[in-house]
Amino acid sequence: MATILDAVLPALVNLFTFHHLGMLLLGVVIGLIVGILPGLGGIAGLSLLLPFTFDMEASMALAMMIGMLAPLNTSDTLPAILMAIPGSAGGQTTVLDGFPMARRGEAARALSAAFTASMIGGVFGAFVLTFAVFGAKSIILSVGFGELMMITIFALTVVGTLTGKSALKGIAACAMGLLAGTIGGAPATGEFRMTFGTIYLGDGIPLVILGLGLFALPEVIDLLRHHITISETGQLGKGWMHGLRDTIRHRWLVLRTSALGALIGMLPGLGSSAAEWITYGHVVQTSRDKSQFGKGDVRGVIGVEAANNAVTGGSLVPTLLFGIPGSGSMAILLGGFVLIGIQPGPAMVSSNLDITFTIIWSLAIANILGAGACFLLANPMARVTTVPYALIAPLMVAILFFGAFQATRSWNDLIALTVIGIIGVYMKRFGWPRPALLIGFVLSNGLESSVYRAMQVYGWSFLQRPGVIVIAALALLSVAAVFWGRRNMGAGTQEASTGADEVIAVRYDINTAPPAPSLMVRSPQILFTLILVGVVVMFLYRSFQLSELGGIFPLIAGFASLALLVPILGFQIFSTKERTVMTDHEQSDVVTRHSNLYFLMWFGGLLAGVALVGFSLAIAGFIFAFTTVLVGRPLWRNALLAGGLVAILAVMAHVLNLYYPAGLLQQLVNLPRWLG
Amino acid sequence: MKIYQKFCTVIQKSKIMPLTGLLVGGLGLAASAGAASAQSADFSGKRIEAVVPFGEGGGADTYTRYMARVLAPKLPGEPTIVIRNIPGGGSVNGANWFEANAAKDGTHFAVASTSTTLTSTLRSTDPNIQFKPEGWIAFIGSPMGKVIYVHSQTGIKNVEGLKDYKGELLMGLQNPTGSDMPTLLSLELLGVNVKPVLGTDGGDQHLGFQRGELTLNADVTSAYKQMAQPLIDAGTAVPLFTMGYADANGEIVRDPNFPDLPSWVEAYEIIHGKKPSGTEYDAWLALFHLSVMSSKALVLPAGTPEDVVAAYNAAAADLVEDKDFKAESGEFIGTYPQLTGEAARKSLVTATSITPEARKWVTDWLKQRFKIDL
Predict the structure, then answer these.
(1) Nearest by CB: A453 against B86, B128, B199
(2) Which domains does chain B have, with CATH numbers?
(3) Which of A126, A335, A396, A559 could form a disulfide linkage to A363, CB 3.0–4.6 angstroms apart?
(4) Looking at residue A477, what is its pLDDT?
């Protein structure tokens, strides 16, 4: 113990020297920036820093790298809550409750609750790391292939809580998410599945694009159609103290979800996105009053934000102890360790203990600094919610396209975003729960490969392992809780609120239900369901052409989807009474100036523009045209917005060595890189 | 060419003013190569892009980032080298981009690693694969050996023990066509009863092995020293053999980093009592060169003019002689002699030119073993 104490304080004192603190701050600032920009995250931030670490002293390089990683999950909350843009693959869950709060004019409250929770979660993660480096080795080694598989199944049962208004639709969406996750190289055989001969789909649909397309793009269109400003009251709200009090009031929730986040982060293979969904499911499951989730329940924001900051601390455990990265950014961090001469492994808790404590202290301090900076940033940024939306929307579209393009930096990213965005718009309109789809997608690959591994190593005998039995019991309990919860639920109404019915189920009494609208009125949603059936059938057809091992998982997911889609379709066509599977927000909507299609045409125009003159110029033209048509004069303001964004894009192109999609123009004329 | 390289090295080391160095270098080139161009490549103020056909992080990316940093000051004009990651399709995307779009004036080079070259070897008929690594001009090649070890619970102590072992050995495998496939094939050729656990990536392979769920594992030298050595010191793991190393004559000899361990060829003799031969040996040799001798290489696109190639070769030759590089590079590239210039180029050509019979032998093996039709 004496040796540990010998290392704790010197590491802290060392960190407070001018140079170390400067590096830490630099890291925090970069982390904040890449966290706010969607599509950029730990991977981009670390690759930006790596070249500077070569010649640095190890502890300084560490302070900088950890300083960058720590606030990522804090600052990505800003676009998630204010604009429904998940800043990274994480942040998708924050949108669910954070954005409705901003819509209610409670952006300030949501942000301050989120940042306080983030800070506590982050510091807790560092705290866990302190003990975990000594004790976690045996925990990690006791979780074998069988247990990992059961944990993934347990995570999947979380979806039972998040099915949305109609359980049938929720589970169907989850099954389709599992199916969508099989696109790309098969984990066991390496065959390319459902890639339709393209290289792009060979690595599957990028998670970032799925999140942006499903959540952000439909929200942009919805806001454009219905609202003048994001905040329905046009107010920012004075919620700073309120948000702080929320976190204090739910302190046990914060600690519980922090612990959960740190634990999931420790297990390699699940990842931070899965951690967030599991945490969110847990928060919903353990809350007595579930009615407000998805409509702006502050607990949804607090729980997830605490967890995703704690994940970083947790995921450092396998990275430091085994040299095994749990995520993409941890893989680069590991590369960074090698570059500065640190060998992860058992030595981290003996001869390299000072380095370990530098990491832990850096993590804690960076979390506090990051949250503090976000507090300062939040007030000016929250004003976005009170600005005329038609002015912000084109900038948001630019950010969305930019973020999507970071996934693989190819033209296909933009096409994928648009296609998924269209699917998202109609899923939202017809009440298909997008969170359930995302959960299926996030867990698909892990589930498939963990099932293969467990079966290949143990056969069916893995079911006799005590750890497996315990987790299986938990999973059953989780399922039982869903049914129990459903029976005790309040009666729901067919309300036309935005996306709120995509999270929590309602009990619905068929006897008192009003008669269904005419078949003519129902035909759009029936058509959408038919399209889904068609896509699933196509997947099934192609799965039969795969090898046995590569085809079995998509076949199971496909048949499950089909088995759930058919009754949904049946109800939608034949039911004489209104049912939860029937939803069409357009029916009950107030008349709006423009349709979904109108705005989708704008995006189509943007894509065409990119094809002609490249990304930067097309975006500038789009911003100018859009604001001029939908907001009006003065023209100089519109031009300023357009020019300003191109300038920012140019700076980023230089700093991060980015390229933007080129168009026809760039093939004819040689333009500077940032215009290409 | 060798004389010219030495010449350039001397000039650069002697710190003659850049301009003079440039002029002399240009003359040297004209004299040695007799090329039409009298002007030597100069990259002053240029921004060179190193194309990595993978996302950030991971072996090839770290390798290229390190090499780009140390190579830049050795190139004439000390250009800035930036990394351009083009991920997708298991490196197919980036490799295709490099083949189609890379500038041939030295402002683009790429990293060619086993995954890329193996893909083009195995999937030569796939219309999506539009790159030809056999035409790429390697200017630096980094061999990387591989050690195969078993869990001590198997009771196997050495290759003889492997021969006598009656049970089944479990080994994690990413997928049958991934970059760890040559290891599996090597084991099967030895007649070892291996059961591959598919869908297991590097991290899971290590954890599974430490938990004793997997009983056989393989590591490249750099990872072996970090991840496996502690297990061997603790008595959990027992090293058996290495894939070997090709000497200057192309003979497979013991890995210079593990002189006490037999090479795969020796292991074959111990188990089968004869030297490997025939088509199956040709196939093994091709995969061996792909995965060990040309584990990673930095390449210029086909059609790059001689003066640019010469500048890169000279920079590479200069680099591997650098004292600092020798001292610190081991962690990134392993402590193997680095190949430069013509040697690097030849090695990549050897690795990527598999005979049609040998390729058929490998694809037949995949078909029969995993029912995968390429």
Answers:
(1) B199
(2) 2-143+294-356 (3.40.190.150), 146-290 (3.40.190.10)
(3) A126
(4) 87
